[in-house]
């Protein structure tokens, strides 16, 4: 699902939007992922333990594949 979103956004970004606006994609996709997982838990489609494991995997995958604010040197989701 996120790959489909990424392809759409990437093609839109290649039409005149600067490279700087691509930073923050990881935070956005991770937030969407967390909302989806919360919805799945609330509907009893997955357990809390499954949510935690999927969240870990999603975070690793998303932050390794998409640019984040932290990559641009502006802090990020891991800042306390």
Which overall shape is indicated by the principal axes computed on the Cα atoms? elongated
Number of strands: 0
Report the structural category.
Answer: mainly alpha
Radius of gyration, Cα only, in angstroms?
Answer: 14 Å
Average pLDDT reading: 79
Strand share of the residues?
Answer: under 5%
Order of helices and strands: HHH
Q: Percentage of helical residues?
A: 55-70%
DSSP helix count? 3
Q: What is the CA–CA distance across the termini?
A: 30 Å
Largest sheet: none
Low-pLDDT sequence parts: 3-17
Q: Overview of this structure, please?
A:
The protein has 80 residues and is an all-alpha fold. It is 60% helix and 0% strand. The protein is built from three helices and no strands. It has a domain at 22-71. The radius of gyration is 14 Å and the shape is elongated. Residues 3-17 have low confidence and may be disordered. The protein has helices spanning 2-13, 25-42, 48-65.
């Amino acid at each position: 699902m996120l790959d489909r979103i990424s392809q759409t956004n990437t093609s839109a970004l290649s039409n005149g939007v600067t490279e700087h606006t691509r930073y923050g994609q990881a935070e956005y996709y991770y937030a969407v992922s967390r909302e989806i997982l919360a919805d799945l838990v609330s509907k009893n489609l997955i357990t809390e333990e499954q949510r935690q494991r999927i969240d870990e995997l999603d975070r690793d995958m998303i932050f390794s594949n998409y640019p984040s604010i932290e990559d641009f040197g502006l802090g990020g989701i891991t800042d306390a």
